[in-house]
Amino acid sequence: MTILTDNRPQDGESLAQYLRRVRTSLKMSQGEMATKAGLHIQSLGKIEAGKTTRLNGKTKAGLSRALGIPEDYLDALCRGVPVTSVQHLKICPQCWSPGSSAEPIWLDPRSKYCFICGTSLIDRCPSCQELIPSLKFRFCGYCGQPYKKISNYDSHIRLGSI
Ligand SMILES: [Zn+2]
Ligand SMILES: [Zn+2]
Q1: Nearest-CA neighbor of 48 among 17, 7, 22, 76?
Q2: Res. 58: pLDDT tops 80
Q3: Using CB atoms within 10 A as the burial measure, which of 24, 35, 72, 92 is most buried?
Q4: One GO MF term, please (predicted)?
């Protein structure tokens, strides 16, 4: 499934506004989306009209499937908290360069491996297991280890080319 990069909820966006925006961007009618999500069109209508923000597990799973969005986004919107607070930073220790932002697809809760090189993504320091607090830091603030891994593979290539 393709994950759109602009499908994150925006600041101050309500659940209703968000669902309408993503649905429109996918050029789906309310009826089509209800069918895809396994919902009654009336139920979807109520959610999109902002009459309810209580979604049960089945509804959340259906909407996330129909729109190709993580359920975490819906959770955050229902609870009225920013999406970032339910999400950890995740980076590829090979491809990430310190100080740069993470690729949106690394942050997707379903991503476990880097889409570029296939390395397991990390959300914590490999040596002390503390979560990565910010991508501004090159080194772990707790134990001083660099987050970016200098792999043996890379150094072999470098040595080989000298
Ligand atoms: Zn990578
Ligand atoms: Zn550490």
Answers
A1: 17
A2: yes
A3: 92
A4: DNA binding
- Look at the chain and report how many structural domains it folds into: 2
108 CA distance to ligand 1 centroid (A)? 14
Which residue range is the domain that position 131 belongs to? 88-162
Domain match, 92 and 161 both: yes
Do the beta carbons of residue 75 and residue 56 sit within 8 Å? no
Residues 97, 67 share a domain: no
Nearest to 154 by CA among 102, 95, 97, 112: 95
Amino acid at 77: L
- Cα angle 23-68-114, degrees, rounded to a multiple of 5: 140
CA of 91 to the centre of ligand 1 (A): 8
pLDDT digits (tens, 9 = 90+) for 64-103: 999 988 888 888 888 887 776 445 688 999 999 887 888 8
Ligand nearest to the CA of 143: 2
